[in-house]
Amino acid sequence: MKKIILLTIIATITFSCNNNSIETNSASSEEVTAVEILIDSTKIPPQTNSQQLPFQEIGAYPKDYSSTNVISRMIEGLGYRFYWASESLTEKDLNYKPSDDSRSTIEVLEHIYGLSLAMKYTFEGKVYDFSQEKYTYNELREHTLKNLEFVKNQLQTTEDLSKLTIQLNMGGETMSFPFWNMINGPISDALWHCGQVVMNRRASGNPLNPKVNVFVGKTMP
User: Fold this and answer.
1) Checking DSSP bridges between strand 173-178 and strand 165-170, what pairing results, if any?
2) Does 112 fall in a domain?
3) Is 63 a residue whose pLDDT tops 60?
4) What pairing do the DSSP bridges indicate for beta strands 173-178 and 218-219?
5) Buried b vs exposed e over 155-169: b needs ≥16 C-beta within 10 Å?
6) What is the domain-level CATH number for residue 124?
7) Same structural domain for residues 32 and 102?
8) pTM here?
9) Within-domain flag for 48
């Protein structure tokens, strides 16, 4: 709305100048300066989604070093890395692959989504059969981040990780694994592939925002 009002004001000034045949250089200079000041004073920040995605930054430290808090912090670190690794990717970035026999960036994002789904299913007591919906780039980001947010929230109410079981349907047979495999499996694998996305986007000409700081979990101003 501000942009429309601004353009209307500029158009009015221009029409008025033309209509009154103002031709002096000094007058034109003053008008341009006035318009520049007007534009500068009404700068509009980039629009953001009405529904902010989680993990734009990492939250405050947990109050203690319980096992669930440690895993929760790992999920936050993963979420933060994924948020920025996958942020503002272009069609060129998504289609990029470093070699003919490697995954494209969009295929890596799909794989990370599948890993987040396996994590989510573990907390829901479901069997993960490696099937998943086909989503667009934006949908993949949203669903992956929200799956990780779900896992983080579930960890806050989980008292005993040994009660959790990873159930995988492999070749029609359901196999069960303890939560230990979640750490060296889906969580570590997803972190690995976030680095792959970062590498790919740099190679395709769209490097990671240099202000992202994974150590403190904040994006510097």
Assistant:
1) antiparallel
2) yes
3) yes
4) unpaired
5) beebeebeebebbbe
6) 1.20.120.450
7) no
8) 0.77
9) no
In terms of domains, do 72 and 35 share one? no
Average pLDDT (20-41) is 40
Half-sphere exposure of 199 (CA within 13 A, CB side): 11
Nearest to 145 by CA among 9, 51, 11: 51
203 φ, ψ to 5°?
-65, -30
Residue 208 lies in domain = 67-219
User: Tens of pLDDT along 183-217?
Assistant: 999 999 999 999 999 999 999 999 999 999 999 99
Same domain, 119 and 15: no
**How do residues 90-133 score in pLDDT, each as one tens digit?**
999 999 999 999 999 999 999 999 999 999 999 999 999 999 99
Shared domain for 203 and 104, answered yes or no, is yes
Output the six-digit token pair for 166: 């990873």
Residue 77: left (phi > 0), alpha (psi -120 to 50), or beta? alpha
